[in-house]
Amino acid sequence: MLDSVYKKLQILGPSAKYDTCGPKEGIDQKIPGVYFAKTGNGYCRLFKVLQTNSCIKHCRYCVNQACMNTPRVVLSPDDMARTFMELIGKRLVDGLFLSSGILGNSQTAMSKILETATIIRQRYHYHGYIHLKIMPGVTDIYLEEALKLSNRVSLNLEAPNSERLKEISPDKNYENEVLKTVIRLNTIRQKYNLKYKRNISQTTQFVVGATRDSDAEILDTMQLLYRQLKLTRIFYSSFSPVSGSPLQDVTASTTKRGHRLYQADFLLRFYGFQKNDIVLGKNKMLSLQKDPKLAFAESHPELYPIEINTSPRNNLLKIPGIGPDNVDKIIQRRIKYGKINSHFELKKMGISIRRASQFITVNGKYEAQLNLF
Ligand code: SF4
């Protein structure tokens, strides 16, 4: 890698850290721009980098906003593509996540991202994972091109509604610029996936806690994005103040809050919960002390205990300590052996009896009070 490229990556790699790849992300300290992200099959290493950290926008939480006094660099599409392929050749990364500040306007920034991805696909014949960031407000032709080149696309809403976005990104328009592009991208993506039998996913991200945003507001938008738009995934980036930015004196959001939002998100995506099932305090926030599934169970005593041997899947999913994989195991065992005989049998299947026992019966037996094991 050229010295000049390495120096730019020392700025462009860390600048990309605000685009999260999930709750359990890490940074490779040796190579700027290399991050670890948790996937369904373990960890993968992504080259997560910005094409440029120059930006005309004034997102008040962002290290790259126009008013920050920070060195600005641009990596050309040729240099970016070559650098990525070098890392792939040395088996140092498994894929690319390419984003950018908005230098000029959204279309110009998007063009550079697309140029890089085109070089990687066409000149270097790379067929692996590419995640492209979509710039808000770009026309359909850019969206179609991005879908042709990528495995995942994302456009960050950053906030749950226009009022909150105005507080943190005063020069972005929530409805007309950001949300509309998310919806257009989603429509084109679904048609594209159907037509070409592809499975390109679409994600978005919220910055949590930079304003007085409530979890209720986030849940409203979460439900819309998952139920109506069928978005693949939402990420929650806990706000952390950047020194020298207009929000430098705002208190950082706790990682616990982000963790609870991820738990509520999982309940909506995998457990059949609706946003109204999620228990909120008077302050419209999730409890930091209690996970949202336990809070639901404790506020609905009429639904428990749930009988392990006869309850349908959607009821089993309401038991604290039992996730979708374990529910499937329970159902398979019921089919194979007729029934589950004891709490001990559940424990052997990997189920946390400590958390589940007070909410279940097994063959009509309720054993929450016993010291079972
Ligand atoms: S558009 Fe906003 S969030 Fe994105 S790089 Fe520019 S200032 Fe940062």
Automatic annotation (TrEMBL):
Residues 29-274 form the Radical SAM core domain. The keyword S-adenosyl-L-methionine applies. GO terms for molecular function: catalytic activity; iron-sulfur cluster binding; metal ion binding. It holds the Pfam family Radical_SAM. The keyword S-adenosyl-L-methionine applies. PROSITE patterns: RADICAL_SAM. It comes from the Bacteria. Keywords: Iron, Iron-sulfur, Metal-binding, S-adenosyl-L-methionine. This is Radical SAM domain protein. It comes from candidate division CPR3 bacterium GW2011_GWF2_35_18.
